[in-house]
Design goal:
With 305 residues, the chain is an all-beta fold. It is built from no helices and 26 strands.
Length: 305
């Protein structure tokens, strides 16, 4: 196993001159729009009443740029062409634990007959051009078997892609898994990478530290994390046996992470940060009305354009 590398020293700041609008899901009081926009430079946040469209209490909304409208699910659930999205674990559906394909413009729902309530999917990982990637934990006696599955939106058929590991992240034709392995009473954590185009699985990293995945990166790596609030350790596994540590800003209160233009957006309980390979992690905006020790969650709901 190679020694961790440090992230590059930043000599200029592209993020300081970022000029775009980022759709955001934000902490909202009852009746407030759940989504809005942060404008860069400046980092000002304004809520968008249009984000109330078809609002669901079971998902965070995202902005579908292809149709120029908000949809009531996370953007990983939206098709690449923006024409449809997949709805799962939503009590507003006739079959709450089944998968539905929804027309993004009209809201018309179509039940996927091969993904009924008696199957126990863990979550929707990604809606890609080839279909919807689903994770199955394989808990108990309920189907399906643990692994990575692919739903064909046209036919509704679901097929197993790989059951060698429990895959937790999918993006850009790559799936990732981090699994705990015990050998002679000692635990280690192994990172596996699956190339969805070739079907080849490779072991990329191993450590005795209990790391967990955060997000794929635009360069084809995996961002990982360990530690707690106030003492997070974040790194990117950029190649086999290559672990690049990142400098974490002070008072970092992480929520979730999403890879979308122009890097990886890190949702914070008091704002939002951006990771790029050139500049590492930088806090880009604090929550509207943020006070020290307060709470005002931001999460990227699409790319910054």
């Amino acid at each position: 196993m190679s020694s961790p590398k440090s992230s590059p020293t930043v000599t200029g700041s592209a993020t300081a001159t970022l000029r775009c609008r980022l759709p955001i899901s934000a902490t909202a009081y009852p009746g407030e729009p759940p989504g809005g926009w942060i404008t860069f430079p400046g980092g000002k946040f304004v809520r968008d009443p249009a984000s109330q469209r078809d609002r669901s209490g079971y998902h965070l909304p995202s902005y579908d740029r292809a149709i120029g409208a908000w949809v009531p699910v996370e953007y990983e659930n939206v098709s690449p062409d923006g024409a449809s999205y997949v709805l799962y674990r939503d009590a507003t559906t006739a079959v709450p634990n089944a998968l539905y394909l929804v027309d993004a413009r009209t809201g018309t729902r179509r039940l996927m007959p091969s993904a009924q309530a008696n199957t126990k999917w863990e979550l929707v990982l990604d809606y890609a051009s080839e279909g919807v990637y689903l994770a199955a934990p394989g808990w108990g006696m309920a189907p399906p078997a643990a692994g990575l599955w692919l739903l064909d939106p046209k036919s509704g058929a679901i097929r197993l892609i790989n059951d060698s590991h429990i895959w937790s992240k999918v993006s850009g034709g790559i799936a990732w898994s981090i699994e705990s392995v015990t050998n002679n009473g000692a635990a280690s954590y192994k990172v596996y990478r699956l190339d969805l185009r070739t079907g080849q699985t490779a072991s990329w990293y191993e450590t005795k530290t209990a790391i967990r995945p955060l997000s794929p990166t635009p360069e084809g790596g995996l961002m990982t994390i360990y530690g707690q609030v106030g003492s997070y350790h974040i790194a990117v596994i950029t190649a086999p046996k290559t672990y690049v540590s990142l400098k974490v800003p002070a008072d970092f209160k992480l929520g979730d992470a999403h890879m979308t233009r122009p890097g990886v957006w890190l949702g914070l309980t008091d704002g939002i940060a951006l990771y790029t390979k050139a500049e590492g992690i930088r806090v880009m905006a604090h929550s509207a009305g943020y006070v020290q020790g307060g709470f005002g969650f931001y999460e990227a709901a699409g790319g910054c354009w």
